[in-house]
Amino acid sequence: MKKLMILVLGFVLIKTANAQLKKVDIVATGLTCSMCSNAIYKQLQVIDGVDKVEIDLNKNLFTVILKADHNLTPQDFKDRVEKAGFFVGTMVLYISYSNFTIEDGKQENNYVFIDTNPQTLNGEKQLRVLDKGYVTAKEFKKLSKKYVKYATYSVNNENDYHIKLVQE
Amino acid sequence: MKKGIIILILLIQLQTKAQELFVMTEPASNMPTGSIGVRTMNSFMFDKNNKLNYHLMPEIMWGINQKWMVHLQSFQSNRASGGLYLEGGSFYAKYRFYSKDDIHKHFRLATYGRFSINRADIHQEELETMGHNSGGELGIVATQLVSKLAISGSVSYEQATDNTSINKFPTKQSNNATNYTLSFGRLMFPRVYKNFKQTNINLMVEFLGQTLNENSKSNLDIVPSIQFIIRSRARIDLAYRKELYSNMIRTAPNGFLIKFEYTFFNVTK
Question: 0.90 cut: is pTM over it?
Answer without folding.
Answer: no
